[in-house]
Write a structure and sequence with these properties.
With 216 residues, the protein is of the alpha+beta class. The protein has 5 helices and 12 strands.
Length: 216
């Protein structure tokens, strides 16, 4: 079991990962792409195998499953889960989710190769995946990446203000007030966009004293 804490602008982002018994090496490294060679996950996309079970476990523990990412290399799959709850998740939450999901995966014998299960909070640049995410964060700055360049601009990457989702169509407002719409199933990755210069512009320097206290 590997546990890590990251201090991020006054609060702790908890990350925990669980290394599971190795079953056998992958035929080739793969990073953020479907695994094709071995095991049950090898014959189906990891989302279709892991997402329904992970979401069921998350709901039972009082969490929201935000996103799943898959990676790998050097003989094992890496499955990264992002969870959230009102008030944010703590290290103990990540650990519970990791243990419960791993137990369910092993009981169902769903992954027949060596894998690492990582669970963490989504952070400030929260991934957006479900239709409800695009509804909830309407009005927020976002960054979208498409599977294919859109016909109007010829670009895959788009940034702007999220206006929301209607049906299966996501609409953003780009610089200059122009609106762009994209089908939800055409978006490969979406996340909240953070202006880090703004976030840290008022952050005090290390050791600066204020109101008789020391900033850390």
């Amino acid at each position: 079991m590997h546990l890590a804490l990251v201090l991020d602008e006054g609060y702790i982002t908890a990350t925990c990962s669980l290394h599971v018994l190795e079953v056998g090496p992958l035929m080739r490294p793969a990073f953020f792409r479907p695994i094709l060679e071995l095991g049950t996950v090898a014959t189906r996309d990891v989302f279709s195998v892991v997402w329904p079970l992970a979401e069921e476990v998350a709901i039972s523990l009082g969490f929201e499953l935000v996103e799943i990412e898959r990676g790998g290399g050097q003989g094992r799959i890496v499955i990264r889960l992002f969870i959230d709850k009102p008030g944010g998740v703590a290290l103990a939450d990540c650990s519970r989710m990791s243990r419960e999901l791993n137990q369910r995966l092993e009981e169902g014998d769903l992954i027949e190769v060596s894998y690492v299960l990582e669970v963490s909070s989504p952070g400030l640049e929260r991934p957006l995946r479900k239709a409800a995410d695009f509804e909830r964060y309407a009005g927020s700055p976002v960054e979208l990446r498409l599977y294919k360049p859109d016909g109007e601009s010829g670009r895959k990457q788009h940034t702007g203000t999220l206006l929301g989702i209607e049906g299966e169509t996501v609409t953003i407002e780009i610089e200059g007030g122009e609106k762009r719409s994209f089908p939800l199933d055409g978006i490969s990755r979406a996340r909240l966009r953070v202006d880090w210069d703004t976030v840290f512009q008022d952050k005090p320097q290390s050791g600066e004293v204020n109101d008789g206290g020391l900033y850390r």
